[in-house]
Amino acid sequence: ASGMAEPPRGKVYQLWFDDDGSMRSAGLMDRDRSTTAVLMEGPVGDATGMGITVEPAGGSAEPTSPPVALVDFPA
Questions:
Q1: Is residue 1 part of a domain?
Q2: Is residue 14 packed enough to be buried (19+ CB in 10 Å), middle (13-18) or exposed (0-12)?
Q3: Number of domains, the chain
Q4: Closest to 71 measured CA to CA, from 30, 18, 32, 22
Q5: SS (H, E, C) 33-46
Q6: Model-level pTM?
Q7: How far is CA 22 from the centre of its chain?
């Protein structure tokens, strides 16, 4: 999360586990965080990667915007 700009007003960054193309919420990034580390919520399970999107305040059940970041997990 180091160096990320604040999300637009009324929006939040939402974390997602990528279950081989299907995105599963992994929580919201705290706008008032005091560190650059962000803990994802939920089991990794069979996730093949993770993503970050910009969502309405409170988050979304599924991504509503293009990802600002996508990262594959090592195999």
A1: no
A2: buried
A3: 1
A4: 18
A5: CCCCCCCCCCCCCC
A6: 0.85
A7: 13
5-29 pLDDT per residue, tens:
889 999 999 999 999 889 999 999 8
Confidence of residue 35 (pLDDT cuts 50, 70, 90): low
Handedness of CA 55, 60, 64, 66 (dihedral sign): positive
Per the domain annotation, does 60 fall within a domain? yes
**Is 2 a member of any domain?**
no
**Looking at the domain assignment, is residue 26 inside a domain?**
yes
Q: Tell me what pLDDT residue 52 has.
A: 94
Q: Which domain holds residue 23?
A: 11-72
SS3 label, residue 15: strand
